[in-house]
Specification:
- This protein is 18% helix and 13% strand.
- The protein is an alpha+beta fold.
- The protein has a domain of 97 residues: Alpha-Beta Plaits.
- The strands form 2 sheets. The chain has a 3-stranded antiparallel beta sheet. The chain has a two-stranded antiparallel ribbon with strand order 1-4.
- The radius of gyration is 26 Å and the shape is elongated.
- Bound molecules: iron/sulfur cluster (SF4) (2 copies).
Amino acid sequence: MQSLSNKKKVVSNKEMTFGEKIYLPAVIGGMGITLKHLFRKNNTLKYPEQQKLFAPVYRGQHVLKRDEKGRENCTACGLCAVACPAEAITMTAAERKKGEEHLYREEKYAEMYEINMLRCIFCGLCEEACPKEAIFLTDRIVPSNFEREPFVYGKDILVEPVDHRIDITKRQHTGKRTEK
Ligand code: SF4
Ligand code: SF4
């Protein structure tokens, strides 16, 4: 019967020759291939000393942005969580109190905001869904860990520090983004 790919190989049951039985030609052939690769250009990098350049569309660890006055942009509307196909985002909303106007831009803010990085598939749908330009993916790699718990990132990791803003201007978005 003809296979779909037409790549079917007929298996031969013929007796092995003496040369094949001692495997020596095959071993020498294998060593030849190894030797050949010794003099070829190396494709691997000595990470972390050497780092590969990422494509501008690379999507890595998220950031929750602040506005120019340092206030959190997120209004805990939940649209990112609804858009997330991996159900990786959870949050609790709270109402901004008097005197907290310098902390939160909107009247409602995320008291708790978590992303489970083990669930996340870095699709970027959360940043596309956000109406407040609050969540963005960045070119940062999520660090590895032996435990599962540290992969649940809270606001302490996600919200950018006031004095150390995360620059997202070089990353290429699919949507129209204007803010830094
Ligand atoms: S990047 Fe995709 S999977 Fe990850 S949190 Fe955002 S929407 Fe969910
Ligand atoms: S990050 Fe954006 S979409 Fe998600 S809850 Fe905050 S404002 Fe809404």
